[in-house]
Design goal:
The structure is a homotrimer. In chain A, strand 6 (166-169) and strand 7 form a beta hairpin. The two termini of chain A are 17 Å apart. Chain A has helices spanning 2-12, 25-35, 48-54, 67-82, 98-110, 120-127, 149-163, 198-212, 217-237, 245-258, 261-267; strands at 15-19, 38-41, 57-61, 87-90, 115-118, 166-169, 174-177, 182-185, 270-273. Chain A has one domain: Ribokinase (UDP-N-acetylmuramoyl-L-alanine:D-glutamate ligase, 3-Layer(aba) Sandwich), CATH 3.40.1190.20. In chain A, helix 1 crosses helix 9 (217-237) and helix 2 runs parallel beside helix 8. The first copy, chain A, is globular. The longest helix of chain A has 21 residues, at 217-237. By secondary structure, the first copy, chain A, is an alpha/beta fold. Chain A binds chain B through residues 22, 25-26, 29-30, 33-34, 39-44, 46-47, 50-51, 54, 68, 234, 238, 249-258, and chain B through 21-24, 26-27, 63-67, 93, 96-100, 193-197, 240-247, 249-250.
């Protein structure tokens, strides 16, 4: 199933308008190209809405945010919603500063987001003081582990239901959920934490996947997460003993470039809970 | 001949002031170093003119443009013209937004540009409604192919003549033309489209090449285009079966670093039309 | 001894707030991760102080400086000083423009800096008209060589004493000095000059090293410089004949990732002058 979703990305070659941070923009562009999509980076409010209108999908990543970038995101988000372009939000740094957190809340209030892709800390910073009744206070750690997985799965599903969108919360185990179902994915490897922006890259990939498959957004978000994890596994297999995180970064993107539907389906390791 | 031009770059080590986008700035800097040139990146209007004056040539790349960057470009362009420093313009995204297109027109009006390096869509967006009499309306596609090459060659030569500058229009076949002659170059490989900023990198290389060889600008622009294509071919030869666009990106820059005059001349595949 | 310092970085995993340029930000982030540290990039004045407070150390790199970034640096510097977080300044481009030089002087006046990491030209642009009495006028070149090493060592020690901080001046031979002592380091290789931002990366590494070892700052700065040089040597050993500066860049970061204390101590090539 995930292979079919990838196949569609390659076929439709979605153009993704990325408003993203300067630290990982190059990797995000290259991973989009590797997947079969096409990146257009533009982040000034003077043109962002027009650029969005030219593209098929929108990625909002709040790394290295500033007021101008925020203004561009708001304009692009509005147009994307009007044109029914899929929108992915990567709330990088939510909780790290008032400006960052409030800006992200503003985006969440103004723009209909199709997938929110982040780590558990970011998701909790944004949504958990409002969801205490769902047992958030009981969450002792910001990691998803085998032990707390049932609890985390329910929490993320509850937030997704409340926010009426899809969440892709990634970590050692990844949970992708909407109100109906949750995918738990066990692909990937721990070395991916040593690559700056592996999360940003995944968010870009997610944008390409859901834009090419708008009729099945939760599955496509799960497919993107799985694709990133499988690419990490393949990248690690090809790593020479003296190679480290910089070569690994390249090999992940390389693996995305070389991935075929059959390999993705064969290596995908996930369960669906309804 | 191209080998001699490369030799001069290595000898003169031109310092290139790059006002460019943040997506591909790192690759542009590394390809400049690989060629024998030296990059200085600075894009704030408070200092751009002074930085330009310290350098030997100027690159203006309009990716991720914003009003501050535009203001820096205008100041730097003026000084570069006063000091007779060669100037390359890469009109990234021309036609994609009013802000982008109008900003580029402003630069074209205010600054004498030595080489304009872009793809056919960008060049047409900027110059073709004014050149309808040259048969632009007949152009059905934005790609240069074997079939439309004679027509495209004449079109680009006509625009170059009208604008009184050198155009380097790159695609499957590259056409570099001024009013007197056109180079048609068939180096490169299709995988280069999968590397973000391969065009930006070529523009940076072009700036180094013409700055080190200011007395023969069209030939030097053609040499840079050829060098990029040959580097792509060499990069592909060294690619392992599991490697993709990220490793390929590195190997292109590596090939520029290792290129010698003899290899460049041997692998160069071009014709000159006068 | 340097191995022990590295060991502490791996153990303490310092979070470094980097306010840095967009050209090399990705490499700085990846080298920090490779060393065991963790980068947080944020450069807007609306949030920079809060981000600094969340981290353990601060890196100020003045590449692609602009007024907003400067304002963020001033706010972050003030908080870092209040919280006794170590601060590294990389005065990229000092002397290249009035804006750059004056902005750096402002930072030096307002913020207590623990280590200033730059090349000899930058250090001279900032400090040498005030230190003429130390023989600066006699310095004919901006390179540290075997011939002028004793003179340079004394000069840098004198400036360090006057400014009451640690200087890490890097080049063919590196000199790290405070008022009491000077380390002269001979690791590294000439190809490192062909990698954009190798200096920026070293400054990031230095921030991680001194933040994890705040009780021995000069030694830790020297260890970072040595680590970078040894990583360059190891990177060169693994370079295929067709590989150039782009692959070399990755292999340096890879070598940092794989470095162990024993290898660092074994390959370290330095002398201490008191």
């Amino acid at each position: 199933m995930f292979g079919e979703i990838l196949h569609r990305v390659r076929e439709r070659k979605p153009h993704i308008h990325c408003i993203t941070n300067y630290v990982t923009a190059n990797d995000c562009a290259n991973i989009l190209l590797a997947s079969g999509g096409s990146p257009i980076m533009a982040d000034c409010p003077e043109e962002s809405a027009e650029i969005t209108a030219l593209c098929d999908g929108l990625l909002l990543n709040t790394g290295t945010l500033n007021p101008d970038k925020l203004s561009a995101m708001r304009k692009s988000g509005r147009i994307a919603n009007e044109l029914h372009h899929p929108v992915v939000l990567d709330p990088v740094g939510a909780g790290a500063s008032r400006f960052r957190t409030e800006s992200i809340r503003l985006l969440l209030n103004e723009i209909r987001i199709d997938v929110i892709r982040g780590n558990l800390s970011e998701i909790k910073a944004l949504f958990c003081h409002e969801t205490k009744s769902h047992g958030v206070d009981a969450v002792s750690s910001d990691r998803i582990t085998e032990e707390n997985l049932p609890e985390m799965r329910n929490l993320i599903k509850a937030i997704a239901s409340e926010q009426n969108t899809v969440f892709a919360v990634t970590g050692q185990i990844d949970v992708i959920a909407d109100k109906h179902q949750a995918y738990c994915i066990r692909n990937g490897c721990s070395m991916m934490k040593s690559v700056t922006g592996s999360g940003c890259q995944l968010s870009a990939l997610t944008a390409a996947f859901i834009t090419a498959n708008p009729e099945r957004i939760p599955e496509s978000a799960a497919a993107a997460v799985c694709m990133m994890g499988v690419s990490g596994e393949i990248a690690q297999e090809h790593l020479a003993p003296y190679e480290g995180n910089a070569s690994f970064r390249n090999r992940i993107i390389d693996a995305v470039y070389r991935m075929d539907a059959e390999t993705l389906d064969r290596k995908a390791d996930y369960q669906i809970f309804r």
